[in-house]
């Protein structure tokens, strides 16, 4: 397993309350727990600076992580991460313990290939419209992909690509398609943005309307002038 996805942690044996977590954060650590796989839940502390460096690694949040705790290693997935609303500070982490022979469900990033070269973009003036940036997959840990690459070079304007159109690696499934009532959602489409055209039409209609008002005012002035002329002649 790549060192990019390794963490070193310390056990937290006592003081698992709010005040203890607050003291831990002040000391530069992040509180967390590991649970699952039929084993006991353990509390741990992770160096905050170490964690920030790992979070800058692509796909870290959707990858299997090996946590070194004393002389033991745990393979885990991040199931929940709490971040301070206004600071660059991780407040808490929940890790799910995994087993090599048990299927896991993880959301992985979607990467669209050949966006600028797609027929609908290059030749037809369309815009790529992603509707999903990540997709949940199910597989054994050894088969977990870092991401799902989708080549859209052949897509034309108004074309849509669905979940069932994705070529999946061996041993990987999309739960939305395998559930009792499959949900074949749209992943990406190519569309023509018509906002600019609509604005031009509105401007033209507005100008036509203004000219109409001016014409009516002009006619009214002419009628008044004629009436005044007849009155003066009498």
Please give the oligomerization state of what you see: single chain
**Helical fraction:** 25-40%
Estimate what percentage of residues fall within beta strands: 25-35%
Distance between termini? 107 Å
CATH superfamily of the largest domain: Ribosomal Protein L25, Chain P
Net shape? elongated
Alpha-beta classification: alpha+beta
Give me the strand/helix succession: EHEEHEEEEHEEEEHEH
CATH class of the largest domain: Mainly Beta
Number of domains: 2
Give the spatial strand order of the biggest sheet: 1-3-2-6-5-4
Largest sheet: 6 strands, mixed, barrel
pLDDT < 50 stretches:
222-227
The total count of helices amounts to 5
Fill in the CATH topology of the largest domain: Ribosomal Protein L25, Chain P
The chain-level mean pLDDT equals 85
What is the CA-based Rg, rounded?
31 Å
Q: Can you name the CATH architecture of the largest domain?
A: Beta Barrel
Total beta strands: 12
Description of the structure:
- This protein is α+β, with helices and mostly antiparallel strands and 234 residues long.
- It has 2 domains: 95 residues, Beta Barrel (Ribosomal Protein L25, Chain P), CATH 2.40.240.10; 88 residues, Beta Complex (RNA Polymerase Alpha Subunit, Chain A, domain 2).
- The chain has 5 helices and 12 strands.
- The strands form 3 sheets. Strands 1-3-2-6-5-4 form a 6-stranded mixed beta barrel. It has a 3-stranded mixed sheet with strand order 9-7-10, with no helix packed on it.
């Amino acid at each position: 397993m790549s060192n990019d996805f390794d963490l070193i942690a310390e056990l937290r044996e006592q003081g698992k309350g709010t005040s203890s977590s607050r003291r831990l954060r002040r000391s530069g650590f992040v509180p967390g727990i590991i649970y699952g796989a039929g084993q006991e839940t353990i509390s741990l502390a992770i160096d905050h600076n170490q964690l920030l460096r790992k979070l800058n690694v692509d796909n870290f949040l959707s990858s299997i992580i090996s946590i070194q705790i004393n002389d033991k290693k745990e393979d885990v997935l991040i199931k929940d991460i709490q971040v301070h609303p206004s600071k660059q500070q991780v407040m808490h982490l929940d890790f799910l313990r995994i087993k090599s022979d048990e299927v896991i469900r993880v959301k992985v990033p979607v990467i669209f290939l050949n966006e600028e070269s797609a027929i609908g973009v290059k030749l037809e003036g369309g815009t790529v419209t992603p509707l999903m940036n990540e997709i949940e997959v199910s597989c054994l840990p050894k088969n977990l992909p870092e991401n799902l690459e989708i080549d859209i070079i052949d897509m034309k304007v108004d074309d849509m690509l669905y979940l069932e159109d994705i070529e999946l690696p061996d041993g990987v499934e999309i739960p939305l398609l395998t559930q009792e009532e499959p949900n074949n959602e749209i992943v990406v489409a190519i569309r023509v943005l018509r906002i600019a055209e609509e604005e031009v039409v509105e401007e033209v209609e507005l100008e036509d309307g203004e000219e109409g008002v001016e014409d009516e005012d002009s006619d009214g002035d002419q009628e008044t002038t004629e009436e005044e002329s007849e009155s003066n002649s009498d």
